[in-house]
Amino acid sequence: METPGHxxxxxARLDPEGESFAGxxxxxxxxxxxxxxxxxxxxxxxxxxxxxxxxxxxxxGQVSQRFACKCSRCAEPLSLEVVEPxxxxxxxAEEGAEFVDLTPELREAIILALPGYPVCREDCKGLCxxxxxxxxxxxxxxxxxxxxxxAALDLLAKR
Length: 159
Ligand SMILES: [Zn+2]
Ligand SMILES: [Zn+2]
Fold this sequence. Notes:
- The chain has 159 residues and is mainly beta.
- It folds into two domains: 8-124, no CATH class; 126-159, no CATH class.
- 14% of the residues lie in helices and 37% in strands.
- The chain has two helices and six strands; from the N terminus they run ββββββαα.
- The protein has helices at 103-113, 148-158, and strands at 8-10, 19-24, 38-53, 56-70, 77-92, 99-101.
- A hairpin with a 2-residue loop joins strand 3 and strand 4.
- The chain starts with 7 loop residues before the first strand and ends with a helix.
- Bound molecules: zinc ion (ZN) (2 copies).
- Residues 128, 130-131, 133, 140, 142-143 line the site of one zinc ion.
- The site of one zinc ion has 7 residues, from loops.
């Protein structure tokens, strides 16, 4: 059984001491929802140790993947490496079990570790809500409104 780009373990031939697997899944296996600020670059990289213990197959290790994202505050592009250092999955491995495809779990671990609101840097100031200026690069004249935004709304109401 050969499925390129998948991590498939041949249970019957697995070394009794366990075996290590390292590689990368095929790009495009990761399906992110519409509107995600991130696009995968390449596949999921993995370094996994797989061991059969009794009637269970245990897999643990590290998975990572690079993404091209947009900052959720200022919309600038950013490159992000998502790392899950403590990947863990287990599978039933009864007598006669043959192959197990670990790819869906590798993928899922990355999706869980992917931040929903990536930022280009922790202190990103974002865009001005009024004029759209990138406040990391420029100081626009419309901010800060004296007394905060409520005062600005008051002024508008009195006009
Ligand atoms: Zn930003
Ligand atoms: Zn502004």
